[in-house]
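Researcher: Quick sanity check before group meeting.
Model: Go ahead. Protein one:
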Amino acid sequence: MARHRGTFKPEHSEPYEISRSQIEKFTQCPACFWMNRVKGIKFPGMPGFLLNSATDTLLKKDFDVYRKMQQPHPFMVSHGLEHLVPFEHEDFELWTKALQLGYRTYHKASDLIIGGGLDDVWHNRENNELHIVDYKSTAGKRNQELTALESINLDGHYKNAYKRQMDIYQWIMRQNNFKVSNIGYFVYVNGDQHFSDGMLLGNTDNANMRFDVQLIEYEGNDSWVEDKILQIKDCLYQDECPDHSRTGFGPKGDKQCEYSKLFESMRDHQIVF
């Protein structure tokens, strides 16, 4: 039977598929989520961040070498995590494919399938716990002394989405009966645009970009996830569009939904298509 995805169809017998990114969109603005999932309204998409995807791919290649050997990567050892190894599972490659819903679980209470593409999982051989790992890329500023790149942290409004992402992945793995640690890790690569003299390699058609790498530990909390999924179920069956979010947008998270602002301006000017 055909998978139930895209526009929600209440009469469809198969459970509806909700991705981790769609949960985030609902969290940001239930109205935009409803318009897209229930009414099939297509919003302008963001261009793909291909350089970020490339760093994810390369990092995975790094850890895959040690996944096959079931040994800790030297990066893990250097951060005192020699008791961890990249997790090996026969379906691991499928878990990483976000466009195919990645790693998923069926949530009976909502009759929804929840999934998302994992970046990595590390296995603690001492207590058999799993740690969710997410790769992130940026090109940050210099520190106040102008001597090095500024240290990365998880502060700031937009990085709350990163934390929610980690929480959801921990929840999905627990739903599938894995023993999952609350501690997750972000492997953050920071492109150096300040202290490198360039990137072109001599008279060749090759170039290198230097990255600083940080490992950031995060203590997850997935207690909010189940309630959010049930809210999504209710939203999918609503006949009327929910209200747009009045906050949660902009650098500080204090701005209203950008689309609601557009729609309000159109109404004010009596613009109807």
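Researcher: Fine. The other one?
Model: Protein two, sequence then structure:
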Amino acid sequence: MIARLHFITLVLLWGLVGVWIGSVHAEVDRERLLTEAGIYGTFAAFVLDDEWSRLESSMRIARLATLKGVVEQHREKLAIDVYLLRGLSDQADMLFRIHAMELRDTQEFLLDLQSSRFGKHLTGIKVMHGITKKPNYVPGFSDQVRTDLKTPSDAGEKPYAIVIPIKKSADWWELDQEKRTALMQEHTAAALPFLNTVKRKLYHSSGLDDVDFITYFETSSLEAFHGLVLSLQNVKEFRYTRQFGNPLLLGTAHSLDEVIEVLAQ
């Protein structure tokens, strides 16, 4: 009960800090960073050290306040999303998805995060970088497939987030554009039945990471996501996949304050 009261008090304090920060820094155009091409996307997964669980609640709350401060400090240039992986993934406890116009801005955020009092308890498990691009193959698809791709996603909360890095074989890159377009049209057709239940975003990573793509998914139905993966594994294009996952990260999307409340307990 006392820890809960401490937490509520701290949330009120964060609110005052947020007002002050907001008066100094204008928040980045989040919609632009999430929709435009040429935006850098970074996925940074961390695990909390053993010392964290041994800290008194008041100490955890105080250190989580520094997490709040670092995130708010960088919202002027970055769109930052936070996910809880603890309990669903043995890879890490939490995940940051960061969008930026310049990758060095993401670097500054991660450096500030890891040097904060909270960050001292974090061990980096995986950091992956990619960039958003305009669709390479869609212009070569049939009119019907292009029309079907405009199917809107179901409205409503999609609490589950899944991140899957993918690497293609050398044979894939040796195919000409026409052949790859035909294979990707088959891939897309297999995914169409799941467009309304599973949102997907693709990041191109060749040259920025050891993989070629980072695929990010949001859904309210893990059963639908399971069906999507099975369907994609049955198309010819999947035969050119050398790495699928490793790591595969599964977590839930939360506001920063919700993540902080869980970690404070």
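Researcher: One line on it for the slide.
Model: The domain at 2-129+258-264 is CATH 3.30.70.3420 (Alpha-Beta Plaits).
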